[in-house]
Amino acid sequence: MTSPITLHRHGDVLVIVSDNPPVNALGAAVRQGLESAIKEGVADASIAAMVIRCEGRTFFAGADITEFGKPMAEPALPALVDMIEAADKPVIAAIHGTALGGGCEVALSCHYRIAVPSAKLGFPEVKLGLLPGAGGTQRAPRLAGVPLALEMTAKGDPIPAKRALDAGLIDRLAGEDSLEADALRFAKEMIGKPLPRASQKTATPDPEAVAAFTKANARRFRSFDAPAANIACVVKATEVPFEEGIQFERQEFMKLMMGVQSAAQRHIFFAERKAAKIDGIADDIALRSIKRVGVIGAGTMGGGISMNFLSAGIPVTIVEMQQEALDRGTATIRKNYEATAAKGRMTADQVAAAMGALTPTLKLDDLADCDLIIEAVYEEMGVKKDIFGKLDGIAKPGAILASNTSYLDINEIAAVTKRPGDVLGMHFFSPANVMKLLEVVRGDKTADDVLTTVMALAKKIRKVAVVAGVCHGFIGNRMLMPRQVEAMKLLMEGATPEQIDKVHVDFGMPMGPFQMSDLAGVDIGWHRDPTRIESIRDALAAEKRWGQKTKAGFYDYDDKRNPSPSPRVAEIIEDFRKKTGAKQHEVTTEEIVERTLYPMVNEGALILAEGKAQRASDIDVVWIYGYGWPVYRGGPMFWADTQGLKKIVAGLEKHGFDVAPLLREKADRGERFTS
Ligand code: 3H9
Q1: Is 635 left (phi over 0), alpha (psi -120 to 50) or beta?
Q2: DSSP secondary structure string, 450-479?
Q3: 20 to 30 A Cα–Cα from 552, which one of 79, 377, 449, 566?
Q4: Cβ(97) – ligand 1 distance below 6 Å
């Protein structure tokens, strides 16, 4: 096998080049190649300096995550970076793309760093439930100080080259197109000069910065193990000699690596990327060109959907029926952009460009030049069919027609057109400009290139897209249903809304079933007859307890939307318990978990068996990005695997649920849903 590392001599400078697509991950072959290259450079008397650079789209993007959890081939990354730093000739890292994780650690072990202005440096390990385990937590604070090291390691967001330069993390900026030449010049200049080594610098303690950082991020870090470990390592760098700090880093790294949280977060990293692949469709299928998007409906959903495309530079024609609604929708989009600009996350020019790409209209006919039209109107089959019938006569040939329905049958909608192959579902989650998930619903007749075009477009608008089959509620909402039904039953049997919600929040969800109802609207799907009271929900809706919007739902709300338990709701529940004669018992946390979370896993197994999700990991992606399932638990299917499927089956049986055959089979065979 040829090595991904090649050597090129430029006079007395040895240029060590890695070419390991797609992202130059530091797998065994790369590490071995780097080790022998450095040895050769050090041993060769005709070499006076070395440059390490990468081919392809990026500098090393980190350790090879696929090697984690398996025995590590020599040399291990920590030993390799120490060897680079120990070299007695200047070694220069020449950085383009993203120097991430182990890649950034390789760079920091070099004596000098030069980067193109578009490059970024970062330690995203925390997002995999880890910390930089090859000296990053010890070298970064020595080079750039504690505050930046904390931010980079514990939050994991990469920083641009210019900021890295200002902070002392890199030494020079290269020309965008002259990295190798500039690195060579830099190397020649440094020949014979004393070698700066990050490990020999001291990191200044900064307890105030540590306290402020920890406090400011307490919410974001809640329940995650890795951020605290990253912070502890950075602090250690200011307290003990380098070698001792490295030992501490190693020990903390191994603890995290063996833990469930990191396994879950690594599972989601790969799950997210796998979700983009569609079984049975070739990767190189020709895509349709999407130059203009039409959105029908300028309400909350339509407006949010439009913003995704406008922000990505794709012009949008937005249609409403009434001028007033159109004006309101357009004004909301502007207001949202202006709020983003006020936070410094957009410039005034960018706001102007986004708004300039928006064409509001009252005429459906104006959608004739759109390549993709997304309908985001009232959730009613009749209304949707009417619109798709009209669109069939308006849209140009080859245009993709999508519905943003969250439950309805895409096949039925497609059937009213003469082009069902061009129709599919694009289920955005509210707020549509913020939430990362997009369920792409594949109808029976949806053409392959329509599906792949929309999946590729999703990446462009920075969504995580998952393919779902046609069924009521698709993947996410379908799994939500058994949870909500069971939560209501538990109320009847003696639990309180607060108790059930607390179990879900303690589990790591952003909110519980009743908090979610209050946010979404208790009146959603209500029959609107206040005299017909057949459920607790009907009783609440009849009293206009519609949730946060009416300041009363399952909870009472103050002006700032802070919830408090409602004595009136307790009365309504008690009244229903008496009326129905429901048997009361003490409901435990364990029972709430078994009766609200296990049925979701059960439903997930049905969805998989029916082929409505391509793979179990897709279900996990839906729940992480659409509903805030805690990423450190890896999604419902991964979580079920960590619990043991036998335990899930036993819990379901205990409470009288029908166990999905696939779940039972897997449990019997000792298998898992996820790999
Ligand atoms: C680490 O370094 C630990 C050390 O501190 C200590 C060690 C002792 N390994 O994202 P994309 C694959 S932890 C293996 O679609 P983009 C990815 O699965 C690591 N594979 O591209 C995908 O495969 P496929 C710290 C990797 O352009 C393909 O590459 N580093 C790795 O949108 C393309 O990926 C990180 O956490 C990897 N490290 O984004 C960085 N990275 O085509 C993780 C990617 O088969 N990587 N792949 O689906 C990223 O953030 C993005 O991939 C990157 C490119 C920004 C680099």
Answers
A1: left
A2: HHHHHHHHHHHTT-EEEEEESSTTTTHHHH
A3: 377
A4: no
From the CA of 126, how far away is ligand 1's center (Å)?
13
User: How far is 598 from 590, CA to CA, in rounded Å?
Assistant: 11
Task: List the domain boundaries for the chain.
Answer: 5-258, 293-474, 495-580
Q: What is the pLDDT of residues 446-461, one digit of tens each?
A: 999 999 999 999 999 9
At 283, the pLDDT band (50, 70, 90 cuts) reads confident
Can you name the CATH fold of 495-580? Answer: N-(1-d-carboxylethyl)-l-norvaline Dehydrogenase; domain 2 (1.10.1040)
Given this chain, do its domains 5-258 and 495-580 carry the same CATH topology? no
Would the CB of 25 count as within 6 Å of ligand 1?
yes
The answer, yes or no, to whether residue 304 has pLDDT greater than 80, is yes
* Residue 408 CB coordination number (10 Å): 20
Residue 167 has pLDDT above 90, yes or no: yes
User: Does any ligand 1 atom lie closer than 6 A to the CB of residue 62?
Assistant: yes
Q: What are residue 361's DSSP bridge partners?
A: 319
Q: pTM for this structure?
A: 0.94
Per-residue pLDDT, averaged over 354-383, amounts to 97
Active site residues: 105, 125
Domain covering 293-474: architecture? 3-Layer(aba) Sandwich (3.40)
Q: Which of 354, 353, 297 is nearest to 329 (CA)?
A: 297
Kindly give, in sequence order, each residue whose CB lies less than 8 Å from that of residue 305, ignoring residues fewer than 6 positions away. Answer: 295, 374, 376, 404, 428, 432, 433
Question: Is the ipTM beyond the 0.95 threshold?
Answer: yes
d(CA 310, CA 313): 5
| Nearest CA owner, ligand 1 atom 30 | 62
From the CB of 134, is ligand 1 less than 6 Å away? yes
Any atom of ligand 1 within 6 Å of the Cβ of 51: no
CATH architecture of the domain formed by 5-258: Alpha-Beta Complex (3.90)
Name the 3-class secondary structure at 427. strand
DSSP string across 69-111: TSPPPSSPHHHHHHHHHH-SS-EEEEE-SEEETHHHHHHHHSS
Q: Which of 672, 621, 665 is nearest to 643 (CA)?
A: 672
Q: At what angle do helices 497-507 and 513-520 cross, to 10 degrees?
A: 100
Q: How many CA atoms lie within 13 A of 84 on its CB side?
A: 32
Assign 70 a pLDDT band (cuts: 50, 70, 90): confident
Q: Report the Cα 126 to chain-centroid distance in Å.
A: 13
Which pairs with CB-CB distance under 8 Å and at least 24 residues apart come from 376-384?
376/295, 376/296, 376/297, 376/299, 376/301, 376/302, 376/305, 376/404, 376/428, 377/296, 377/297, 377/299, 377/302, 379/405, 379/406, 379/407, 379/408, 381/408, 381/409, 381/412, 381/413, 384/408, 384/413
In this predicted model, what pLDDT tens digit does every residue of 137-163 receive, in sequence order? 999 999 999 999 999 999 999 999 999
Distance from residue 105's CA to the centre of ligand 1 (Å): 15
Say if residues 137 and 102 touch (Cβ distance below 8 Å).
no
User: Is the separation of the CB atoms in 409 and 433 below 8 Å?
Assistant: no
Summarize pLDDT for 34-58 with one digit per residue, the tens.
999 999 999 999 999 999 999 999 9
What are the backbone angles phi and psi of residue 110, rounded to the nearest 5°?
Answer: -70, 160
Q: What sign for the dihedral angle of Cα 250, 256, 257, 259? A: positive
Residue from 18, 24, 64, 65 whose mutation best tests the ligand 1 pocket (most atoms within 8 A of CB): 65
> Tokens at residue 374, please?
């997304």
Q: Which residues pair with 121 in a beta bridge?
A: 99, 159
Could you identify the residue written with the tokens 């059930």?
Answer: 500
